[in-house]
Amino acid sequence: MEFDPRRHLLLYSGSSHPELADEVAKHLGTTLGDVDIQHFLDGEVYVRFLSSVRGADVFVVQTHSAPVNQHVIETLIMLDALKRASARRVTAVLPYFPYSRQDKKHLAREPISAKLMADLLNAAGADRVMSVDLHAGQIQGFFDVPFDHLTALPLLVEAVRNEVGSDVVVVAPDAGEVKDAEKFRRKLGPEAGLAIAHKRREPTVHDEVRTLGIVGDVEGRVCVLVDDSISTGGTLAAAAETLVEHGATKVLAAATHAVFSGRATEKLQDSPLDRVIVTNSIPIPPEKGFSKLAVVSVGQIIADAIRAVFEDESVSRIFGGDN
Predict the structure, then answer these.
(1) Residues marked as catalytic
(2) What percentage of residues in the chain have a pLDDT greater than 90?
(3) CATH 3.40.50.2020 occupies which residues in the chain?
(4) What is the CATH number of domain 9-151+299-318?
């Protein structure tokens, strides 16, 4: 890959997902820069970049997997170090955005933690932010700097098409995912149908849901549950059970972010789901793997977006406007 010699691109990785960052670097035809990241015994983070970044266009790849707070602080310190070292522009590439599910208040005296994350990134020195499939698109509006919203939709659609074809019913696991489910359905083709799982979540009991019914015809059809992330697996497992009760012949799940908290992988493995398709936006350790799991990589789309930003080209063109 050839760059304008008057401009200088540097790519660095935090400690959360160096494998993904290295893949992005290979797609760009470059290598990761050297950075010394240490965690002291009391939990404090130390960062030092080992070569000059003065005048460079710097991209920091850091997904916010567990331990989330440690990786958030590490990201902020990396950004601060780069700005103090006179980087020309610093872009935070965050495949999974931290606290994205806390994007609004449900009860009195709750925070809007996603907004706080945006403020912290702004204050730390991010000139631009990039992320994949936000839980809520309005999070982009929390920022005072440009935000590039990437999507793994084409990757997941292709994975589903390869698995079961296009004659399926795309199912939103709740009303909030209907818009994304409809996008997924359109990408699959005109033969694909759409349905909605009606669920109830108690606002004071986190990560517990109950699926009450299905809106749409799923009897005798292959169904694909579409979501932005899988946390405890409860929503998808409950929805899959309800779909089978309503006559679905096969049920798959497709989601961008494999958070896999608690007993998630056990729930998914024991559920009626035939296949769970996710991306590598979050690292999946061997102990969280299971036989129904399939993983596709977002490395290429992140690399394409970084290339577009560096060359001052359109990011939305990469996704045909679906982002």
Answers:
(1) 199
(2) 82
(3) 9-151+299-318, 153-296
(4) 3.40.50.2020
What is the CATH code of the structural domain delimited by 153-296?
Answer: 3.40.50.2020
Three-state helix/strand/coil letters over 129-152: EEEECCCCHHHHHHCCCCEEEECC
Tokens of 239: 């929805």
Contacts of 153 (CB under 8 A, 6+ apart): 133, 180, 183, 184, 187, 319, 322
Pairing of strands 275-279, 293-296: parallel
**pLDDT band with cut points at 50, 70 and 90 for residue 318:** confident
SS3 122: helix
Q: Which of 195, 264, 252 is nearest to 222 (CA)?
A: 252
Tell me: pLDDT of 130 over 90. yes
pLDDT of residue 210: 56
What mean pLDDT is predicted for residues 241-265? 95
Report whether pLDDT(322) > 80.
no
**Please, where are the H alpha helices in the chain?**
18-28, 68-84, 113-124, 153-164, 178-188, 234-245, 264-270, 299-310
